[in-house]
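so my prof wants the structure for this chain in the tokens format not the other one, which i didnt know existed until like an hour ago. anyway here's the sequence
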Amino acid sequence: MDTLTDQFINYLRLERGLADNTIQAYSRDLSSFARFLEEQDLSPLTVSRDQIIEYLNSLKRSLSARSIARNISATRMFFRFLASEGHIRENPARLLETPRLSRKLPNVLSKEEVDRLLARPDPSTPAGSRDRAMLELLYATGLRVSELIGLKVLNVNLESGYLRTVGKGAKERLVPIGEKAIEAVRDYLSDGRSQMLRGANLPTLFLNFRGRPLTRQGFWKIIKQYGKALGIGKEITPHTLRHSFASHLLEGGADLRAVQVMLGHEDISTTQIYTHVTMKRLRELHEKYHPRP
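here's what i got, hopefully its the right format
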């Protein structure tokens, strides 16, 4: 099992180009499945569909529906890989069904709350200049946090107003940047970043105080601090600005498929959740301002 799992993980990383977080989650799921097989004295090459279902049912005692759905996805992909590589003749996980999950509406800021958040950093300091550029860019483009911190200086073309990023599945996309974000990034590049570099020569756009690339965890702490200082009673994360970006575009009349492309969603059904957010906002406005709600 360990050898087959290693081959599968390499396949996900090298051929499918999945994100590291997804690969790590699948690896954990398969480690749990391997323990079940070992306890039952079973082999992944001879395990039956009923035995796989028995394992998945056992997860209901300790995991959420979303985690179980991910386990099913990992298991199906693993056995599909084994079949494609000739390790097994028939795929016992082929007909496994993924349960339908209720989608939680994303947390979205109002436009006024976004304005207040983006005004929090002090651009007169190197850190404030960086933070302002990151927040403006995040709201202007809807990037995932991993895409934002992974940006290189050469990925951002301030003259043409576009940036290039590589998202899930190693898929590259171009995303337009607004004027305010362009101004914020330009100011950071002209002064704040050069102070943080400390004479080094790094391609990464956003740096920490030690002149090293800012980490995902580092930016999470930064945005949560600004969100707490805002005092609006909402948890603010990097994804909050991504959600707000999409919701505000659709509220303004943007085409759903254009938003899908900018977000880097493979399936438009993933983007459609923002139409529900928009309708919820419209209902709130109707109830608040209509004379006969």
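also thought this was worth mentioning. The longest strand covers residues 162-166.
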